Amino acid sequence: MRLPFFVYGTLRPGEHNHDAFLRGRTRSEEPARLDGAVLYDGPGYPYAVPEPAGVVTGEVVSARPERYGELLRDLDHLEDYASGDPGNLYERVEREVTRTDGTVLRAWVYLAAPAVAARLRVHGRLIESGDWRARCRPPGSPRATGR
């Protein structure tokens, strides 16, 4: 199934993994949100964790058709994901995401694997805004620092 990808951390435009993994491989990148999840600091990278009342901000990325398989493989590798591996840090799952115009579509999302999510819920640092870019924003500041 060739779904787009919902990215919410270091793969977002302007973040350090965007150019290395997405530049030249995408057909479109649009702002979107993932309902039903919250964001935790890794540190250094985020984890989206299922939570009914949460919202995570990111982009929905559509791959160029001729680059899809290569991109999927490289993103799975970046996220340390292998289907069925109990040692995964992330699980690639199909979820609904919402574009800013209200359009809902299905996309691949890398969520924290169950053991990681359980640990984060107890010991993790929640990014209350749900926006990785806003994690360093001082209270009342209109702009994120964006690494």
TrEMBL record:
Question: Entry's Pfam families?
Answer: GGACT
Q: Which InterPro entries match?
A: AIG2-like_dom, GGCT-like, GGCT-like_sf
**Please, which domain of life does this record's source organism belong to?**
Bacteria
Which GO molecular function annotations are given, in alphabetical order? transferase activity
Instruction: Supply the alphabetized keyword list.
Output: Transferase
Domain Gamma-glutamylcyclotransferase AIG2-like, by residue range, is 5-133
Q: Which protein are we looking at? A: Gamma-glutamylcyclotransferase
Q: Which organism is it from?
A: Streptomyces luteolifulvus
**Classification lineage:** Bacteria, Bacillati, Actinomycetota, Actinomycetes, Kitasatosporales
